[in-house]
Amino acid sequence: MDITNGDVAATQQHHDATKRSDHDDSSSNQNQSIHDDDVSVSSIIALSELDPPPSRSEILRDKWLESLSGKIHFWVGVTVMALIIIDGAFFFFLLVGAQNMCTPRTNCNPRNWWYNFSIQFLNVLFTYLATVSLPWRLSNTAHLFNGSGKHNRRSSDAGLDLYGRPTEKIWYHISQSRRRIIVFFLILNSLTQYANQATRIIYYSFELQNVFPGTLWTNLFFMLSMMCAAVAGVLQIHAEMGLRKVHPERFPPTLFETLGEYLTKVRNIRRRTREEGGDEEEPTRDGDVEEDRRKLERGRSFFVRNINSFFSNVEPSLGLWGL
Known about the structure:
Blueprint: H1 6-20, H2 23-29, H3 56-66, H4 71-95, H5 111-132, H6 134-144, H7 176-202, H8 206-209, H9 214-246, H10 255-277, H11 286-313, H12 315-319
Helix pairs in contact: 1-11, 4-5, 5-7, 6-7, 7-9, 10-11
């Protein structure tokens, strides 16, 4: 995480990507470009110029967050998310008895052993995400609930980062009140997940978790943790989608939007090539083929730059979820 220059780099990168796209595609991409005057280099205040200067706790926080910003950490998070989906599906099938290992389908061995293993493994994955996301969650909590007036070291108004500096990271443009609600539920998610993990350690076997009081405590904290995560996730996604809709020229498009636009360009070029190639009276000229090839290359470059710009812009958003 580049604390000082990351916002400018993301903005300039996205702007350059738009400027380099070919003229034919510029009209369709103009709403995805970042204007030069959105965030100027001079508006990003260097840490050495901050008043008051960074405290020891803020410097420690920056190092903590930076340690969680590498590619390895990101792909570990993606792998954990994938395992959650796979193991969650396996757990669900065992829960409803969709298995052929034994009968009765919802209470027999080895089904019960695998059922307990899947829920234990699922909880370990959730606990990992609740832990690696905690630095981002705690940092934003401290930033958003640090008082007001003379007691407020760094403003947490919309559009300002953890140091109170102008930023283009979309998370910081969510209203202050909405961010407070989101981080409140995220902190609750971490706490209830730790309680959930504790119950799974205490009631570690299928027999213990399947009778009272194991059934109460394991299911109670599991549901509370999931509900807190769901509320925070819906609020965050809704807020960020709203910002992109209102300011499409300011915030990079999502992965799905970028991929959809790129695939549309590819289909249009290939369709035109087939149509012209099938016309015997007007065979495809070498110049047209070369031009189409250049457009595809520019489209791929634009796609890659947009993806990089998107991930840079949503770094705090993903950090809140352990990515």
